[in-house]
Structures are given as structure tokens and as C-alpha cells.
User: Fold this.
Amino acid sequence: MSDRALFIVRAGALTTVQDRGRPGHAHLGVPRSGALDGPAAALANRLVGNSPEAAVLETTLNGCALRPRSTVTVAVTGAPCPVAVDGRPASWAAPVHVPAGALLTVGAAVSGVRSYVAVSGGVTVEPVLGSRSTDLLSGLGPPPLTDGAILPLGSPAPLPTRVDTAPQPAPPGELLLRVVLGPRNDWFRPEAVRDFTTRAFRVSSASNRIGLRTEGPALERRLKGELPSEGMVLGAVQVPPDGRPVVFLADHPTTGGYPVIGVVREPDLPAAAQAVPGTPVRFLAVRRR
Assistant:
């Protein structure tokens, strides 16, 4: 095997390979997938000289540990976390030199949920439908990483101008999601729609890459009948029978039978990727997506 490879010493709670995803296949029942915090993943790639399409690692809460077979440059962005090379502290959100055989440790998130690890050359697992992303719903792409896994790496490009730090938004203390009402807001009582856009919810610990689940006021439906399955889009806010809104994220199903009360603007979704359980959530009604 080529020495351009990455050995996974510790996979962590959930570490997956992600890139920009595979949009355009919803008619086949295939979700978009891709990095939940796209700007953080893109920044990590820029810091190591990769193209924006290069695949990175997305960690969840407690990081991972990696050992490259050749000398690489890495960058860790997204949720702030401690970074170390062979036990020595290294920079977060900046290029880091990791010699062949050294141990790169990406620690637990200090705040936020998901960190992104870009490696010079990018992770080059076999693409499926044009993407290397792991899709937890459909099972497409590589499986979530396990201890002992080996990932191939591409050839590195020249590094850009070095920087000491790279600005990133902090994980949200309160999640404000701008939402366009509809198409099924008329299935809910007027007071439920008012509660949706005026009252506070909280991020549920049951949230995942498929959807951000909320806790808070239950939204009561006006129509009690069944809704035939219809297409779902990224950011759709579906309301299941318990009345608690669910914001669909990158691995969302492409169809669903619960009414969608509104759709969150896509630029607001990266912050949802970093909202820890218990974070207050407010939905702000706007006219256009």
C-alpha cells in the first residue's frame, strides 16, 4: 500500500469522511450528505492547500487520533478543541506539520459539536455518485471510521501563504434560524404557527446528521388526516406526531409524510451543526429563502 495513507488509532464517537456531498440525486432517493458545517470544512481544506472538493474527516464531540504513514500538513477547524502531535500541543485552525509516524490527537470539543480534520492531499476513498461522503441514512460512501482503519490520501498541493490564525464563528450560544413558512403551515392551528416563530425551543440530545431535533412547545395540528409522502429539501422543518419540530440536515430523507411547517435558510444550517444539546433555538419567519 502507498505511504500516502492515514491510520486511524482512535475513531472517536462518530468520525466520518465528508466532502461537499452528492446533490442532484434526490429523484433517486439519495440525500445530499456532505459536511454539516460546510464553511469549517472548506476553511480546513484551504489551510492545507487542498481544493474545496477534497474530502475531510468530520468528528463528533470527542475527536479522534490519527497516524500518517508519510509527512503531512493538517488543519483542524469547526468546534474548538485541543490538538497535539506526539503529545505536544499544536495549533487549532492553522496548518500543522505532522511527521510520518507521529500521532495526531484531536481532542474533545471545548464548545460546539463537530470538528473537521483536513489532510494535505485529501482523503481519497472511492467516490460513490461523485462524492466520498459517508451518508448515515442511505449507507452510501465509506462506513463511519473504526479503530485500525486505513484511509488513502491524495498527492499534496503547494501550501498557500501561511497564517497564524483563521477567523471562525464561535459555536452558537443561541441558535437563530430564519425560516420561510410553508408549504404545510396551513395544517397547523394559527396559535401553533405563532408559537413556532415566537417561542423558544432547545436542541435535543437525539439530534444527529439526519436532523436537528428540538424540545419545547408542541405544535398542534389543525388537520388530523394523513399527508401523502412528498419531497423533502435541506432545511425542511418537519413536525412529527409529538409536535416538536425537526430541522432536516445533510443526511435527511428525500421524502416524508409529516407536514413541513417551514424551511430554514441554508446559510443558517452550519450553525445548527455546532449547536450542543440544550442550546436555545428560535425560528424567525422571513419572506424569502
In short: The longest helix spans residues 38-48. The chain has a mean pLDDT of 94.
